[in-house]
Amino acid sequence: MLRIGIAYESNRYVSQPDTHARHVGKCEPDQFRKRHLTQGMAVDPGNPDVLYLCVCANSCGSGGVSTGIYKSTDGGSAWKNMHGFGAPNHIRVDPTNSNNLYVSDGVCGGTNGFFTSTDEGATWARPGGFDSVTAILPTSRDAYICSPDPADFKHILITSHQCCNSEIIESFDGGKHCILHPSIQGVGAGGGFNVFFLSNPALGIGDSRTWIFMTQDGGPGWYHTTNSGASWTQVTAHPMMHGGN
To answer: How many independent structural domains does the chain possess?
Structure first.
């Protein structure tokens, strides 16, 4: 199995398959230095030469920062900022249709929220269902994770960064209509929350109602549900690291 990571070093991005690293190219001149943080990366399942990288400021208010979603169509030799999102955290590519993308944007910046694209990132829109369901939350569009169901890309889970408690937003149609699940008992606001489907349809493991929820440093740990958040069980008291996925 090939595991691909992303690392930053002196304006270079490096892929990390298992035990060795390979320089895959520079981004735009002077773009990625100590002022920047990269967190989310995606590879187009239909074309591994197409890469997406989320770039945000290392700290809110940093000057001279070229944040946004960067795209490479040649395996990382060249990159282009295709949209100046303020603080994109994670990007997802539809495994059945590479035109369809999701992005979660939050922490800081003026473009917070959950966004979709149907043209490989040329244009983006924040779905009306997301706006409607988050209107009742304080500074509600501070999104952190968007996790699609392995069996259905339109079925997604979205969490916040630090604006809210541990509410989870769920949609079955790519954000056009959304459900707000209540907070997990004992899990308050603070740091980004991760959530993902514990499911592998090919192996018959889990299903669309089985999720894992994770808190960052200082939080109470990981939680597991098998009924779409109706009830939760704490599985460990060890939280993920700050900025974890």
So the answer is: 2
